[in-house]
Amino acid sequence: MTLSRHFSDRAQRMKPLAIRDILKKGADPEIIPFIAGQPEPSLFPTQAIGYQSNHIFESQGPEVLQYGNSQGLEKLRHWIAGRDSHVDPNNVVIISGSQQALDISAKLFVMPGDKVIVASPTYAGALGTYSLYGADFIGVPCDDEGMLPEALEAAMQNDPRLIYCIPNFMNPTGVNMSLARREHLARMAQQYDVPIIEDDPYGELRFEGERLPNIQELAPEHTMYASTFSKILAPGLRLAWIVAPDWLMEKLITAKQTSDLQSATYTQHFVSELLEDDFIVHHIGRLRHYYKKQRDVMVTAMKESFPSEINYSIPTGGMFIWCELPEQLNATQLLEQAFDKKVAYMPGSAFFHDGSGHHTVRLSFTIVNETQIKEGISLLGGLFKEAIASSV
Amino acid sequence: MTLSRHFSDRAQRMKPLAIRDILKKGADPEIIPFIAGQPEPSLFPTQAIGYQSNHIFESQGPEVLQYGNSQGLEKLRHWIAGRDSHVDPNNVVIISGSQQALDISAKLFVMPGDKVIVASPTYAGALGTYSLYGADFIGVPCDDEGMLPEALEAAMQNDPRLIYCIPNFMNPTGVNMSLARREHLARMAQQYDVPIIEDDPYGELRFEGERLPNIQELAPEHTMYASTFSKILAPGLRLAWIVAPDWLMEKLITAKQTSDLQSATYTQHFVSELLEDDFIVHHIGRLRHYYKKQRDVMVTAMKESFPSEINYSIPTGGMFIWCELPEQLNATQLLEQAFDKKVAYMPGSAFFHDGSGHHTVRLSFTIVNETQIKEGISLLGGLFKEAIASSV
């Protein structure tokens, strides 16, 4: 252990994400896993991917395995830009999963002690990345429309360096930010001239309601937008993208280059082929339909089994249902008993920058079948009832 | 451009690599490219990769497209460890190209102002990454056995935080560090208790001579070793690995996780399948044979065409021949004339931390055919002769 004294301040601040250990324990096939935002594997387009990854050599030759450029394959950047008429392919950078957008944004903006505004709660992976760069978080509490405007305005008074947000079907709460709140957030960024990192993995998984504009559309000069193929194709490809304004592009590409040179040329090529026809439109339709049904089954089961003391709201998209247990319960402690009953969830405290939220729980409805949902929710309902009864 | 004021000190230090613009200009098919360390695409195992990337779904199911763990696929880590009897799979982390090892090592060790020892010259991508983290480089001059021991010992007096090195067929000089120098470097790291980052993309491309031990074998507790599938399979896969001692593992995996969660599950799976039989052994044999012949053609051409004032040494492996022109010549300026003659190389100054080496040139013999090598070297020989004649 002699050499650990050499670790940088940055390394000293690194902590493994709590979800890692829970996922390891939850990998036991006897456990009903409401843990993570993993897509359902039976929905992965294996045939299309297998075909294209083999066929690409015939159509494009061996160069699809060569080094490519750091910004990413032009064809793929065109497809991404084409979905959104106001985006230019030159403003797109291909990255290896949207987690990399967080790391790159931290590299570009965050020095130790800098204030970073986050929703409270927010994605644990963002907290992990920004905190190793020394971010000092300002948490903005949320209701079922997103960040509370007054709290956000108060946060803006503290000279923030960056705002991190997930407007579409937020992780972990599932909340879809309302149009008014989106406009307010965009206005705040412009008025105080602070960059926004908009993280959008779930936007396409909308079950009902109209698509709302991204912050990137409302404040394009202030927004670095990230989205990913992880939830609409498959996470094991590690393929995602950033859309950014001109003033950011050179630094952004250089940051990507110094991080890992470029994302996989091969994957970019065969995914581009896959996107050529209407396949993805139909595929996203299937995903929406499937996950909506899953959500419905879970909500119905929760209505039946959960005690009335537990609050939760019904998400209109995404992968998660957020629950607030009575204050006197501790979700991390209860998880041990849940594991004993062969069911697992993600304790909500992992999503709070200040470690609060001990009584909150995130449930994922993605990789469990209907029977598992009913059984797992019933088990959890029983567990929570017992815990409430013995706590009063 | 208002928001660029928000860039971190780190972002202010970012500079695009010089090779990027040269590669762009050199992509013109009329230019003979001695520029980069790109493998020859006709040697990429497209059939094997195409087959495995399709077949993997039959043998392993859709889970090969799911999230995986941050350390990397166990089967692949076993294969890597199995090549080297003293390595444990638990000490291996899969990464997305060996550039990522540099970024991760910088994250783990380098704070602004920290001294980092590098060979002078060394890999430009390492200089780019460490410098954005604020490294203060100490360059150690080299001869044809590697870093000069006395200069290295002097550098060790300056409280270095890290030593970065490429012992096998160094980029850019092609020098293979001698056993005595390897032992000396390992001893220095141990004596002064300083971590070494050993970058080994070229070790398998050995044309002659015995394999020499890696620094990782000589000073395992002090070495974070990185190697890659880029040169032995294909760079477009973005698959590489780190071998590190126990004390480093937890921070290393966390650093990988916060950077991009994990490397592509899919790619790790189909590459693991590919590695199951003797394929890779034979494939590396073919690569050695091919690149050795390329080197021979280039050296023969250089003997014929290059003026005697130019010094170069003959590499015993790797992808590069390093040339020193007479001091009064400037290789960056001459590159413009080379482009006019439809041939291009990499000016050596990009590989010096202090921007020196204006009269040095790196030639790559990998993606050019024999005719191109003969023609390109003849053109360069003429250009350099003219330049020498007009400079005296």
What does this structure look like?
The structure is a homodimer of 392-residue chains. Chain A contains 14 helices and 13 strands. With 392 residues, chain A is an alpha/beta fold. The first copy, chain A, has two domains: 2-44 and 281-391, Alpha-Beta Complex (Aspartate Aminotransferase, domain 1); 63-274, Type I PLP-dependent aspartate aminotransferase-like (Major domain) (Aspartate Aminotransferase, domain 2). In chain A, strand 3, helix 6 (124-132) and strand 4 (136-143) form a beta-alpha-beta unit. In chain A, helix 3 packs across helix 11 (265-274), helix 5 runs parallel beside helix 6 (124-132) and helix 5 packs across helix 10. Chain A is globular and about 65 Å long. Chain A starts with 8 loop residues before the first helix and ends with a helix. The model of chain A has no long low-confidence stretch (mean pLDDT 96). Chains A and B meet through helix 1, helix 3, helix 5, helix 6 and helix 10 of A and helix 1, helix 3, helix 5, helix 6 and helix 10 of B.
On the 0-100 scale, what is the average pLDDT of chain A? 96
Largest sheet of chain A: 8 strands, mixed
Radius of gyration of chain A, taken over Cα atoms and rounded to an integer in Å: 21 Å
Question: Quick one: overall form of chain A?
Answer: globular
Span of the ends, CA to CA of chain A: 47 Å
Largest interface: A-B, 90 and 91 residues
